[in-house]
Amino acid sequence: MKVVKLGELVSVQTGKLDANASSLDGEYPFFTCAREPLRISDWKYDLDAILVAGNGDLNVKHYNGRFDAYQRTYILSSKDQGLVDTRYLYHFMDTYLETLRAQSIGGIIKYIKLGMLTDAPIPLPPLAEQKRIAAILDQADGLRRKRQHSLDRLSALGQAIFHEMFGDPTSNEMRWPKIGIKDTGIKIADGNYSSKYPTKDDFVEQGVPFIRANNMKAGEISDEDMRYISPQKHAELKKGHLCEGDILLTTRGQIGNVSLVPRRHQNSNINAQIVLLRPDKKSITSEYLFGLFSTQSMKSALEGLQTGVALQQLPVGKLKEVEIIVPPMYSQQQYADKARSLTEMRIQSYTAMVSAEQLFQSLQHRAFRGEL
Q1: Does the reported pTM lie above 0.85?
Q2: I need a labelling partner for 247 at 20 to 30 A (CA). Which of 144, 213, 272, 347 fits?
């Protein structure tokens, strides 16, 4: 298959605006380095374009129409639509993100340079073949999005049940007792860091799961891209040993992601981006605590406590000071019964989503090796 440099096929521009140029009620999309676009009142570009985030969380989007863009967003548009299909180009760039992440430079916030894009080698079959490949990938992409949507609906249902039974946990209109976390009997412990953090040589092919923030997805703990430490290293670590029913909370980067530890991760370990909350079962159930920290109002409250600019974090000391509502145990148990049924459905939905994601990634990689 013919391979050419991307710069031969596309023109590349960058946005010119700061992120604060956005407007909540703007008519047009405003593309930044975030995964979801903001809004803006005016537009500068009217293109069928691929947008690549130039720093931070590298990601790629496709948009056809009027928009504007942040100054670190690369805007790719075809020089000749008779040579390259835009959807084919989008899927190629989505796959090529792995290479761009490996090439990215800088300190805490990584970034890419223009040449990393223009020098990218893109396989270029005939246009009809490009459209066929893009159609297959679009169909697989649609399937995984439907699976994600089903999972999101289950999550929303869980939050709706929580709000119906307990109200908003921050405004506390139902006037439940409100207690600081440090006074509830909840054990809070962070993961391992500094000299205790496992080195490259401590990671093994099979062993004790070492859970990182990227393994926490949709309330579950994903085994995808899981790392493992030896049982010996696990025994040496004094922190981060998990029990079934613990609640995991991310405290660095994306603050407030939450997962409930299932039985299969009894005695797993966690890294420094995560804290564990172990409820006193006499006063708080695991399901209630998970539901509480899954609410948007609690996530917003935690985000309000974060410190740092380049790398945001939630200090454990501040987390201990957070006040939470503590309804009576019989109410918590009623919620726990409903939550367990939802958890079973969520696990099934998550498994289906993972299968759809794996299918899409397999097709995507095969497509650009000429195997689709």
Answers
A1: no
A2: 144
